[in-house]
Design goal:
about 130 residues, mainly alpha, globular, 7 helices, about 75% helix
């Protein structure tokens, strides 16, 4: 999942507020894997409360730092006639290069699954024209 998100980063190798907020948010959800199954134990309740608080704070940071309004505007624009023509133009113009890299990465046995996920993220970001910093 983290590798898929790195595919959305506009400048590879650089992270910004948005990508750091997403990574923190996903980390909070990973912490819940340990805490939620043990909720029946009273001494785990403070940890569970802290995990829930981290999830809520991380979610609000993602919405604020990643400009979720821009994502929602982009997605709603795609269901219009003009948006579909833009999506078709991106699919015909830039996406074949990303799709070629994705296909070659899936055919190569030496490529890691993280790199394959990053290539999927790059293709999706190109099609949606939505990048994060």
């Amino acid at each position: 999942m983290l590798a898929l998100i790195t595919g959305f980063i506009y400048t590879p190798g650089q992270t910004g507020n948005c990508s750091e907020a997403i990574f923190t948010y996903l980390g909070a959800w990973l912490n819940s894997i340990d805490a939620f199954p043990k909720i029946y134990l009273p001494w785990v309740w403070p940890l569970t409360q802290a995990v829930i608080q981290d999830i809520i704070a991380g979610g609000s940071a993602v919405i604020y730092d990643c400009d979720a309004n821009k994502l929602f505007l982009t997605l709603t624009h795609l269901i219009t006639t003009e948006g579909l023509s833009e999506l078709g133009a991106r699919a015909a113009g830039a996406a074949p290069f990303e799709l070629y890299q994705l296909i070659t990465s899936f055919q190569d046995e030496a490529v890691t699954s993280q790199e394959k996920a990053r290539q999927c993220g790059k293709l999706t970001a190109t099609l949606l024209n939505f990048y994060i910093q």
